[in-house]
Amino acid sequence: MFLDKTSKNGADSARRCARSRRGSRAVVRLSFARKNCVSVLAACGVCGFMYWETIRGTFSRNRFHATFVRHVVPKLIPWPLPDSIVVLDIARIHMYRELEETIHQCVQYRFFATLNPIEIVFVQLKRWLTRYANLAFPLYPEKVLEVAMRECLKAKGTGVNLFRRCGSGASGVEETVFPGRRKGWV
Fold this sequence. Notes:
three-stranded antiparallel sheet, Nucleotidyltransferase, domain 5, 28% helix, two-stranded parallel sheet, 7 strands
């Protein structure tokens, strides 16, 4: 199970009113304010998003831990079944003793990846928001995200295909991804 968080503010790429000197470009700066953004904590498996929570503002460590224990831990299953390994990125919000103990109580493995595949899914989510919901997002961010989380993984190159390169398929770990695990090899 891949777990991460992302945030999006209401700023879009539409140009606001700006003036500049003749022969120079007009520069429009949109500030990123924490209070105006919406954060999403998502747990993604081979078949798509298993759970997500949307809040206004950013996730604190306490809010992250409470959400993880309440909604993600019940979906974890023991090794060697799918969704038995928790993959996080190496952010500081993920590195504390209570989270490690919680994960080890229900599954055996926790893995920190420098490139978490859920980041690719988040790029697709933000691309979907920019393409289809750029004007509605600042007005109704939670409702737009609820639709976007379901729609962004419907493309052909996502879902199971996205996680195949990580060694995960619909039936668990794929032996063809790891050729070194053949008979007689270590």
